[in-house]
């Protein structure tokens, strides 16, 4: 147990160093930054919703520098085609041969800016690389670099010229994060920092080491009672009446998929490692649940007409279905020593 606990502390220490470097450039957004690190450790993708100018691009770009990884940004537009994303075959007239030109998805950290502005074909091309970590060009399969993270952004203000994301693609995102405006104090620091000398960011780890941290995180312990709690939460979004939350039923058309259950377990474990533990506690899952569930709920017209959003429904369900009360630390020690 001592060795495993040390491993959890090592992951936390490494992520703290990464966060320290990122915070040299990015002001505030603590919740957002923590969730980005959770997604990296849990090997999931992020869907971020926020107005322009909230340092979403800056965060991912700075993160890539601290991890010695490659970073690409794609501005999604209505005239984008799949080849612009994954690459294409090019004919060389001099040699009479075809060569493969790889697209921007061949990177470690990919920022898909305003993803809902691209047509369905482009979104489908991104779907394959998010799920399978590979792309197919002219019948040939090519693997993308590992680790691989997609962070896609949506602008909640302007809907003109946008294409709703397919439910299958939305479900592939492990979490959906809502990014808000900074406080006045934070905005003052932002103005000083941006208009002053540029801050230097140091690389604190490599992508190879990050892959090791991800494997270490997968060895974290999640108590069966906590997994059962995740199952009950997700099941309550599908059959509210069976779980005693009948008042939620009129506002839901469809509930969350089994990917939500998996996401709750993976993210709770990753959050626990960020907090210096190699076992998840109930508060880890409670903290992460809204980010994992909010984009997976399909709301009814009644919910939209009454101004009820997914977060309100999740809070109602979680209030009715409390997390297990056991601390779980003793369970973790027993399991790891067995």
Structure in words:
The chain folds into 2 domains: 2-190 and 197-210, Rossmann fold, CATH 3.40.50.300; 220-337, Magnesium chelatase subunit I, C-Terminal domain (Helicase, Ruva Protein, domain 3, Orthogonal Bundle), CATH 1.10.8. It has helices spanning 2-22, 30-42, 56-66, 82-86, 120-132, 167-172, 184-195, 207-218, 224-238, 258-274, 282-293, 301-305, 310-320, 329-337, and strands spanning 46-49, 71-75, 87-92, 97-102, 109-113, 134-137, 140-143, 149-154, 175-178, 252-254, 298-299. Residues 1-6 have low confidence and may be disordered. With 338 residues, it is an alpha/beta fold. A 5-stranded parallel beta sheet has the order 2-5-8-1-9. The protein has a two-stranded antiparallel ribbon with strand order 3-4. It has a two-stranded antiparallel sheet with strand order 6-7. It is built from 14 helices and 11 strands.
């Amino acid at each position: 147990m001592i060795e495993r606990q040390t491993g959890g502390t090592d992951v936390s220490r490494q992520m703290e160093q990464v966060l320290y470097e990122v915070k040299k450039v990015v002001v505030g957004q603590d919740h957002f930054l923590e969730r980005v690190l959770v997604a990296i450790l849990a090997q999931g993708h992020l869907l971020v919703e926020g107005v322009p100018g909230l340092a979403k691009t800056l965060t991912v770009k700075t993160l890539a520098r601290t991890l010695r990884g490659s970073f690409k940004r794609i501005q999604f537009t209505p005239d984008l085609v799949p080849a612009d994303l994954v690459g294409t075959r090019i004919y060389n007239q001099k040699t009479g041969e075809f060569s493969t030109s790889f697209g921007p998805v061949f990177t470690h950290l990919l920022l898909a800016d305003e993803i809902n502005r691209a047509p369905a074909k482009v979104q489908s091309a991104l779907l394959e690389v998010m799920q399978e970590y590979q792309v197919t060009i002219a019948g040939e399969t090519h693997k993308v670099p590992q680790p691989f993270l997609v962070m896609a952004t949506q602008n909640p203000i302007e809907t003109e010229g946008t294409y709703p994301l397919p439910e299958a693609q939305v479900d592939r995102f492990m979490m959906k994060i809502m990014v808000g405006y900074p406080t006045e104090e934070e905005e003052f620091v932002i103005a000083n920092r941006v208009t002053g000398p540029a801050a230097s960011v140091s690389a604190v780890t490599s992508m190879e080491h990050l892959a090791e941290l991800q494997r270490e995180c997968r060895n974290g312990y999640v108590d069966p009672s906590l997994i059962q709690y995740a199952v009950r939460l997700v099941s309550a979004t599908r059959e509210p009446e069976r779980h005693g939350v009948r008042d939620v039923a009129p506002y839901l058309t469809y509930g969350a998929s089994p990917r939500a259950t998996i996401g709750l377990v993976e993210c709770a474990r990753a959050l626990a490692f960020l907090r210096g533990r190699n076992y998840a506690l109930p508060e880890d899952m409670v903290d992460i649940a809204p980010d994992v569930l909010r984009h997976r709920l399909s709301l009814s017209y009644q919910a939209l007409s009454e101004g009820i959003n997914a977060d309100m429904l999740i809070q109602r369900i979680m209030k009715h279905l409390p997390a297990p009360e056991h601390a779980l630390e003793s369970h973790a020690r027993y399991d790891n020593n067995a």
